[in-house]
Each structure stands twice: as C-alpha cells, then as structure tokens.
Amino acid sequence: MKKSEKKVVNPKFAQTERYRKILSAIESENKCPFCPSNFKWHKNPILKRLGDWFITENSWSYKEARHRFLLICDKHMENISELSAKDLETVLKLAKWATRKYRISGGALAMRFGNTRFTGATVCHLHFHLISPKVNKKGNAKVVYFPIG
Known about the structure:
It is a single chain. 21% of the residues are buried. A five-stranded antiparallel beta sheet has the order 1-2-3-5-4, covered by helices on one side. The protein has helices spanning 17-29, 85-101, 116-119, and strands spanning 46-50, 53-57, 65-73, 108-111, 127-133. By secondary structure, the chain is α+β, with helices and mostly antiparallel strands. A hairpin with a 7-residue loop joins strand 2 and strand 3 (65-73).
C-alpha cells in the first residue's frame, strides 16, 4: 500500500491467522469492509436496521463471549468527534433492542476510535461492539479479552 493511501484495516491485531489473511486481502483492495458498497466480507445477516445504523453478529468470535454484535453506521467515520447525538441515540436503541431480544443480562458496549496503533482495532470504520460473556459452571462470567492498545 502506498504511503498516500489511507489505511482501512490493520491485520496486525487479528486474533487468528484466518482473520489476518482476510484483512490482508481487504487491505490489498484498499476498500473499507464496513462501507455499504464493500460489505461483502461480512457473512452474517443484518439483524436490525435503524436509520443509518444496523446491528449484526460479529463474524470473528471473542473466545469467552456468549454474544458478540457489531453496530455499524453506513457513513464512514473514524473518530469519536464525527458522532452526533442522533448517532449515539440510535446506537443505544439498537443495543437495548439486542439486550431484550437475546436476553442479555450483562455485558459491555465498547467502541475504539482513531488510529489503530493506539486502539488495537482491525477495522478503521467506526463501530461499536456489544459483548456478553459466557458463564462458567458456578454461574460467574468468564473474562472476554477485548484489547485496546
């Protein structure tokens, strides 16, 4: 990739070799995998759409996660400063929908933003993760590894 080209993914932070290979293929095309015209690498269906945002199950599992969803905007954004109050309201509505539908008792809503060198993200397109952990035999949540940095 030429220095002048904007980065769309960062294979460095992929947690599996299979995912790293897919990210490398995306990187060679230099097309954002979350922008609507390029949304061909994600194989899971869109579960619900609200305005410019939608929710889908993450294709790449976190080992100890029971549920792992992505909340993605059609508009390409990379920094938190680009989010509007309406965006945050829509994300919250989708997260509430998923917690009711999938009976999620607890979890996390997380978003990485900005330069992937600092975030540990694999996709530059701003998106949220809704993650709920698996429970062990004693009924306690297992730790889900969601790296930042």
